[in-house]
Amino acid sequence: MSQPENESVPAPQPPAPAPASPVAPVVVKSGGKGLGAFALVLAVLGLGASGFLFVQGQNLLKRQEIQFDQKINQAALGESKNAALLADAGRKLQDNEALIKQLQSDMQTQQAEAAANNRALQELLKTRSDWVVDEAEAALNLAGQQLVIADNVPAAVAVLEGLDARLARFEQPQLLPLKQAVSADLAKLRQRPFTDTANAALRLSRLEAAVGALPLLADSSLRPPQAAAPAAVSPNDPWWRQAWNRTLGGLKGMVEIRRLNSTDPLLMSPEQAFYVRENLRLHLLSARVALMQRQNDIYQNDLAASENAVRQYFDAATPAAQSWLREIAQLKAIQPGSGNVGDSLSASLKAIADYRQQRQGEILSLPEAASEAAASQPAAPVSVPAPASQPTPAASAPALPTPAQASAAHKGIES
C-alpha cells in the first residue's frame, strides 16, 4: 500500500545494537570421566584449603584477643600495685608528719624546761647584793607612788633616807653606783618645795561650806541702818547749843548715804542669788580637783574667779567676807605641781637597771662556757628516719599500649 503524500516521513532511527551472543555452556561430555574426577578433587582441595585458612584465621584472632586481654589485665594489675604503693607511701608520710609534730612538741617542752631551769639558776646564782638591789627597787617604787599619787615629798624623803642607811651597811663595790644615785636623789628631794595637798583641800572644803553664810551686797544695802549714837552734850553748854546738837543728831540718823561701784547686785532676784552661791561653790570644787591633780593653771583660775565673785556680789566689808578673802589669798600662794615628779628618782632607777644588765651578762656567760665545753666533745650520732621512697610506675607495672599500637593490632586481626 502506498502511503499518502501529505504524511510526513519519520526521521531515520539509529540502528539497534546487535544482541550479544549467548555464552556457550561448558558441556562435559559423558565420555570425559577422568577430567570430571580431577575437577572434583580440585574443588575438594580448594574447599579444604579455604576451611583450613578460616580455622587458622580464627585461631590467630583468638590468640590476639587473648594476648590483648592479658595485656589489659597486666596493666590493671600494675595500676592496682601503683595505687597500693602510693597508699603505703601516703601512710608513711603521715607517720613522718606525726613524728615531726611529736618532735616539735618535745622541743617546745624542752625549751620551757630550759627556761624554767634558767630562772632557777638565776635565783640560785643571786648574791646578797642582788637581794639588796631588789629591796632597793621595792623601796623606790613605794617612794615613786607617794610622789605621783599624793606629791608626798616627806614620805619619799623618809623612804630614801631608810634606803640610804641600809645601803651604807654593805661594802660591795658593785653597789657603789646605786649608793651614789640614791644620795643624789635624796638631796634633790630635800630641796624640793612641799605642798600639803591634804591640808589645802580641807581648807577649800571649809571655804565651800562657808559660802552660805556670806552676806550678799543687796542684803547689806537694804538692811535698815543702825541708830546713830546721840552726840555727847556738855552740861556746861548753853541751852540753845544743847538743843542744836540734839536736833543735828536726829537728822543724821534719818539719812544714810552709801556709794556702790555697780548696781547689778541690787537688782538680783532670790533665784539669781541662789545661782551665784552655787556657782561660787562649783569654782571652789574645781579648784580642789585641780589641786589634787596638780594642775596649777586651773587651780589659780578658779581661785581668782571665786575671789572676784565674792568682791562683786557679796559685802566684802563684813568680817565673814574679810576672813574668807584672807583664806583665799593664802591658798593662792600654793603652787601645786610646780616640781617635776618624773625625774625625782631617775638616777636611782637607772642605777638599778644598769646593775641588773651587768648581772644578766655575767649569768649568761656561764651557760656559754658550758656550751663551749660540750662542743669540744664528740657528738653522738643521731638517727633520722629516712623519708618514704616514691615508687616508679614504669618499673613496677607494664606500660599500657598506645592508641597507635592498638590500631595496628586491630588491622592485623582484620587482615
Automatic annotation (TrEMBL):
Signal peptide: none annotated. Keywords: Coiled coil, Membrane, Transmembrane, Transmembrane helix. Residues 86-120 form a coiled coil. It holds the Pfam family HemX. The chain crosses the membrane at residues 35-55. Residues 368-409 have a biased composition (Low complexity). InterPro entries: HemX. Residues 11-22 have a biased composition (Pro residues). It comes from the Bacteria. Residues 1-24, 368-415 are annotated as: Disordered. PANTHER family: PROTEIN HEMX. This is Heme biosynthesis operon protein HemX. It comes from Eikenella corrodens CC92I.
